[in-house]
Design a protein that fits this description.
77% of the residues lie in helices and 0% in strands. The protein has 273 residues and is an all-alpha fold. Helix 9 crosses helix 10. It is built from 10 helices and no strands.
Length: 273
């Protein structure tokens, strides 16, 4: 038998590590898988984020449906597209910031620093894992809405576009809560930020009633609330009606939120870890 010889290196020669392309992306995707494993092992957080929109949907349909639209069926068609947007908002608010804060406080991210990975990979991976949670939440709420009687009035492509736009909006918005999770000293601080922002962001919209039926001061907030534009875009894509304007405003708001919060979150993360 012949042995394959390996060239030996001379003494004092330092072997440089092989740099593989797209290292940050690969590391981030690997850590996104870790985030999904956490969801599988502790599904309570995801269940909480899904159940809240479902409970609100049932309450609003059967409490206000008759008063606002005359019957619950018509009101379900009106409120359901907005409920999809509320689902990703609540999913991002209730999971992203608290989970990140817990990882930082317990020293998990300190351990990641000892690994040969990009320094921002744990942060990016955690947010990428949220995308899967958004999809799971949307599918669950969509299935429940169909059981209640909601029906798409446009087509399959428009429905998929509505879901994709909603997930993108939730992803961009979640970076604000990533920043909150990084800068807060404990989970109580993150939960305080969640409490202060969830209701005006998710409910200070035209989700429950048309904008022109609201008082003037509330109309002013609804018209500048990015969640309102996302809800209008989903209504247009799922039920028909104006689409181009609401979709464009939603995309502009999403890109603006991402451009503003993502660099701040990454900078704060690097300072803290």
């Amino acid at each position: 038998m012949t042995a394959t010889s390996v060239p030996s290196q001379s003494a004092g020669t330092v072997t440089e590590p092989v740099k593989r392309p797209y290292g940050l992306l690969r590391h981030s995707l690997a850590l996104a898988g870790r985030s999904l494993i956490k969801v599988r092992r502790t599904p309570e957080g995801l269940a909480h984020a899904v159940l809240i929109p479902v409970i609100f949907l049932v309450m609003f349909v059967y409490l206000f449906g008759g008063a606002v639209s005359g019957n619950t069926g018509e009101y379900l068609q009106f409120i359901f597209p907005a409920a999809l947007v509320m689902t990703v908002i609540i999913s991002g608010i209730m999971i992203t910031g608290v989970s990140l804060n817990a990882d930082i406080r317990t020293g998990v991210f300190e351990r990641f620093r000892s690994l040969p990975i990009g320094r921002s990979a744990p942060l990016i991976g955690s947010v990428l894992g949220d995308l899967i949670r958004y999809v799971i939440s949307l599918v669950t709420v969509f299935a429940f809405g169909y059981l209640l009687g909601f029906r798409v009035e446009t087509g399959l492509l428009e429905a998929l576009a509505a879901c994709a736009l909603t997930v993108f909006f939730g992803f961009c918005l979640s970076w604000g809560y990533v920043l909150a999770g990084v800068v807060s000293r404990d989970a109580a601080g993150v939960q305080g930020i969640v409490t202060l922002t969830m209701f005006p962001l998710a409910f200070g919209t035209n989700m429950v009633a048309p904008t022109d039926t609201l008082p003037g001061w509330l109309q002013a907030w609804v018209k500048i609330n990015p969640a309102s534009h996302a809800m209008e875009a989903c209504r247009g894509l799922l039920l028909g009606g104006p689409v181009a304007g609401p979709v464009m405003r939603t995309l502009l708001w999403s890109i603006g939120l991402l451009a503003f919060f993502m660099p701040l979150a990454v900078r704060a993360y690097r300072r803290r870890t």
